[in-house]
Design goal:
7 helices, 9-stranded mixed sheet, 33% helix, alpha/beta, 9 strands
Length: 251
């Protein structure tokens, strides 16, 4: 399974171009408040050996060193992207780390975007929300349109509330990117008419500036999952495109 260091890459991202990654979770394990059936990092149970989270000071040193090296070598960076081995916002120093990252981005790569890939579970926390509002691309995940679907696909820790997430995302006033995984499992299909209709209603309610729909392209911890072709995803989201929503499709 994928394991990332504190700062890694740049790598080519299907969605963000040349992306320098930041992993705010353990380097030798996985730590997340979701346990998604498609996660390339594997199950949470596979990553219990390392629970240590990097600090803001460690991030500053590692990121500045990496950015300076990339500038010296002429390496292009389109995005500095928080992803890694779990949910980045569960790092208690996340707000301070965002400030540091923006500072170093402005110093070394002022044209690069700062992106955060998040499952949106902590958007309702004021400090996390304010930090996410500062970045260029807050990319927030909603994979299913009902709690039953969320439990099937994302397997969240107790206390997760889709309604709370939606209410918190309204605070962005549309200035965020919504990300949704399209897949088929033995017990869930994104294309199920009820799920798809409800998901479209969420999109219409939140009015994100962009929507990223994508599918499985790596090994998954659950067996029996199926990807959805780019052509099929385009068919499924066509009504939203017709309504003027900007949708990026990655097969």
């Amino acid at each position: 399974m994928v394991r990332e260091t504190l700062v890694f890459g740049p790598i080519h991202s299907r969605r963000l171009g040349s992306s320098l990654g930041i992993n705010l979770l353990p380097e030798n394990g996985k730590l997340c408040n979701f346990d998604c059936i498609y996660c390339e990092c594997g199950w949470n149970a596979d990553g219990r050996d390392d629970r240590r989270l990097p600090t803001e000071a460690e991030l500053r040193a590692a990121l500045e060193s990496k950015l300076a090296t990339c500038v010296e070598s002429g390496t292009p960076i389109d995005s500095i992207t928080f992803s890694g081995d779990g949910e980045p916002t569960i790092n208690p120093e996340f707000p301070a780390i965002i400030d540091t990252t923006l500072e170093l981005r402005d110093k070394y790569y002022p044209s690069a975007k700062v992106s955060v890939l998040s499952n949106a579970t902590r958007v309702h926390v004021p400090a996390v929300f304010e930090a996410l509002r500062k970045v260029d691309n807050p990319i927030m995940k909603i994979d299913a349109a009902t709690m039953a679907g969320i439990r099937e696909v994302n397997r969240p820790v107790p206390g997760y509330s889709l309604k709370r997430v939606i209410e918190a995302l309204k605070g962005f006033h549309g200035d965020f990117v919504l990300q949704t995984m399209f897949l088929e499992s033995p017990s869930f299909r994104t294309s199920d008419p009820d799920n798809l209709s409800r998901w479209m209603d969420i999109v219409r309610e939140l009015k994100p500036r962009e929507i990223m729909v994508y599918t499985i392209d790596r090994a998954t911890p659950m067996q029996g999952l199926k990807a959805v072709s780019a052509e099929r995803m385009a068919e499924l989201v066509a009504p939203l495109v017709a309504e003027g929503f900007k949708i990026q499709i990655r097969g």
